[in-house]
Amino acid sequence: MKDRTPVQRIDRSINRDDYQQLPRYPLQVCASLVQNPANLGGLCRTTEAFRLEQLILADLAVTQDSVFKSLAASAYRWQPLLACSIAALPQWLEQQTDYTIVALDADPTAVPLPEFRFPLRSILVLGQELTGIPANILTRCHDRITIPQWGLVESLNVQTAAAVAIYAYVTQHTSFLQPSACPTSTVFHSIG
């Protein structure tokens, strides 16, 4: 017989107007360099699923793309979005003085994710598909992290890598969103 462990889940019957007022983790995901609408849609869905503060896109017009909408499901209706073009990104990052800016990089000299402790107020900067994060952006980042990998493929898809890093952040800051902050219901999840 499998162990049944209680897992807290959000009560999906919450009034949608009240939902917008619930707290969010103070992690912003900067995807201004990401170009693929499918990756951006997946990122939108992921950031909303973890109730992150904001997703930064190069242009909000991508939210009207059918591929973006398909991957995002309805998350783009709930997730706070900000437009910041690639040209404006260096200046925008410099203005974020209340946040620690963390580059998610495939460089093996970056700090391995399991060894990194995210500051509560962080911005996770994602690189462009194939080429990564340009030097003029990396120099504005306080930290660089990497996800250790052991396979023959050299990197994860940007949306997948971001989801791994976001989950690491959330597990490090689980006390930020107390159970009373989000209406929950207990369900049982089979383990094993």
| Integer count of domains | 2
Helical content band: 25-40%
* SS element count, helices: 6
Gyration radius over CA:
17 Å
Low-confidence stretches: 183-192
**Which architecture of the largest domain does the CATH hierarchy give at level 2?**
3-Layer(aba) Sandwich
Give the spatial strand order of the biggest sheet: 4-3-2-7-5-8-6
Sequence of secondary-structure elements: EHEHEHEHEEEHEHE
CATH topology of the largest domain: Alpha/beta knot
Question: Beta-strand level of the residues, as a percent range?
Answer: 15-25%
What is the CATH superfamily classification of the largest domain?
A: SPOUT methyltransferase, trefoil knot domain
Morphology call:
globular
Q: Separation of termini?
A: 9 Å
Structural class: alpha/beta
Q: At the first level of CATH, what is the class of the largest domain?
A: Alpha Beta
Mean pLDDT value: 87
Main β-sheet, in a few words? 7 strands, parallel
**How many E-type strands?**
9
Task: Please tell me about this protein's structure.
The chain has 192 residues and is an alpha/beta fold. The protein folds into two domains: 1-18 and 180-192, no CATH class; 24-176, 3-Layer(aba) Sandwich (Alpha/beta knot), CATH 3.40.1280.10. Helix content is 26%, strand content 24%. Strands 4-3-2-7-5-8-6 form a seven-stranded parallel sheet, covered by helices on one side. It has a two-stranded antiparallel sheet with strand order 1-9. The protein is globular and about 45 Å long.
